[in-house]
Fold this protein.
Amino acid sequence: MNPVAGALEKELMKIPRTHAGDDLSFTPKIKTADDAIAFAKKHECTVLDLTFVDVPGTLQHTSKPIHEMEDVLKGSAGFDGSSIRGFRMIQESDMLLVPDPTTAILDTFKTEQTLSVLCNVKDPITGEWYDSSPRTVAMRAMEYLKNSNVADMAYFGPEAEFFIFDSVKYDTSAHGAMYDVDSTEGIWNTGKGEDGMAGNLGYKIRHKEGYFPTSPMDQQQDLRSTMVREMERAGIKIETFHHEVATAGQAEIDMERDELLVMADKLMRYKYIVRNVAYRYGKTATFMPKPLFGDNGSGMHVHMSLWKQGKPLFAGEEYAGLSKMALHYIAGLIHHAKALCAICNPTTNSYKRLVPGFEAPVNLIYSARNRSAAIRIPMYSNNPKAKRVEFRMPDPACNPYLAFSALMLAGLDGIAKGLLPGDHTDGNLYDMAPEQLAKIKRAPASLSEALDALEQDNEFLLQGGVFSQALIDNFIAGKRAEAADESKRPTASEFFRYYDV
């Protein structure tokens, strides 16, 4: 850490964040509004923060003074939905935020003691949950699962990667565009002075060599540890954390699996904590899939399993210790994979990562250990409770409520239709003959191609009313506008290649 950032961290850590000492290693289980109110009073909260998620997946918030807390936690609060991305229907602008008290935590990034809760969105006229609210989609997905009689619980475990930079600058206009990111770890900084010195200490991570180095190569262990500490204070249990493959501060922090809706909530809080801890250190964090050229991008492998009455359903006697149900689930993921990419890889930048080669698993196949496959079956443990499937194509730019719901619906469609995934592929694809490789289907090459697939294949999302057709259509329209705008813009590399033509 540079001296300025270090001093900033020390000062910020002096701010009192709780009056309960160090007893917040885990937030106590809050089940009711009364529990949340008692928790807020115990910690002398002065602010109630109401958070919710827009369709692109950004956390939004509005706040209330604490004297409003009881009425809001036991009721709702109004807001203008027409100003929220994906909610923009001017004729239906009045909406209600309905807090979910089970999500209440202390927000340790605020000077004032703040109780933060995640909210659902309700239409005040019909009294129905709002179709375009991502959390509504996840709630309906869980209801659909329980009504299916297939399972009563879907566990998700995302592995979100991200970059921590010291600086990011970007601009775009009619006559120019630029971006520049920097990190003290970046291999491009070996020839520069650092931290006010004329010289350089030389410990920089080479491209694609950032996986598991110790300090002083890894300069962000303390920062990641602080992120983990804050996550666990917020009730997010962490299994492991480490530097990731790329240079310039790529990181991964893995959460313990949880039920679909709860995990989507946790991932939103996870991203909030990552960004705010980085900011506290005088750094900046991004979940953009591909911020660097020539090095690994940030993916988000998603582990999934179905359970019923406390028993795992994916363990069996089939390939890699899977059950027949798990194979049908895999087949559903493969069958709908291209449409899923529109939701799980929802930016034009996503497809700078999702390209054939050594970086991203674009091949629509499954395997026990082959990491070039879109679907992998982890083999770390023979315990039936650990048996799961890992979908490796998504990236952390997705909206987790929409992505997790879509993935589960695709798998359930495979189970309902008895789809089969074909033969597994355990060989090295990079040694495979071209004629064999050509037979393997791949992920879409662009956001536009993924949107085409979603437009043609979205019936599985409509099952049980989980997604509404209006939400799907509006999502596609919004993303097509993004792709069309991006396709019109000259880039710096185009000037490099073509200026002298």
